[in-house]
Design goal:
This protein is α+β, with helices and mostly antiparallel strands. The N and C termini lie far apart (52 Å). It is built from five helices and seven strands. The chain has one domain: 3-Layer(aba) Sandwich (Aminopeptidase). A seven-stranded mixed sheet has the order 1-2-3-4-5-7-6, sandwiched between helices. The longest helix is centred in the middle third of the chain and has 15 residues. α1 packs across α3. Keywords: Acyltransferase, Transferase. This is Putative acetyltransferase. GO terms for molecular function: acyltransferase activity, transferring groups other than amino-acyl groups.
Length: 179
Amino acid sequence: MSSSDEIQEKPPRAERLDGYVIRSSTPDDAVAITALANLPGYRYGTLRLPYQTVAETRQYLENPAPGAKKLVADMDGVIIGDIFLGPLQGRRRHVGTIGMGVHDDFVGRGVGSALMKAAIDLADNWLNLHRLELDVFTDNHDAIRLYERYGFVIEGHLRDDAFRDGHYVDAYAMARLRT
């Protein structure tokens, strides 16, 4: 069998990760969250700009939007993932928006799943949110699969939605309705 006839297999998936906790973020996490936000893989999947400063992160943590919840996956003081849940107001107070990311070295090890479970529990069982919304870049296949596992469906295709790394990129608008 020639090398061109061989089937290329994906490398084995990393072991699921133990030893971290999901908790609410605090202003004391500003340095660790800034380090997370400045990782190239994390940033590539979010709307964050390069070179985020600790001062910018601290400002965000000290002045959250009304009702906003920011959770982190903390492994011995290293923030390996975070998720934002922002309930809306007025006639959309039944809706929450989600944004999340996982540390480049911990992707595919259950951190995103743990963060999503915690945010959905908070939304469904404590905040009485009926609808959760998020946007995801169309080339972020791992994140799309994660969101679909938790009941999110693609509701729209946002063309040239964001400018990333010198190019416009598309995103999907996804949502989950509590049943």
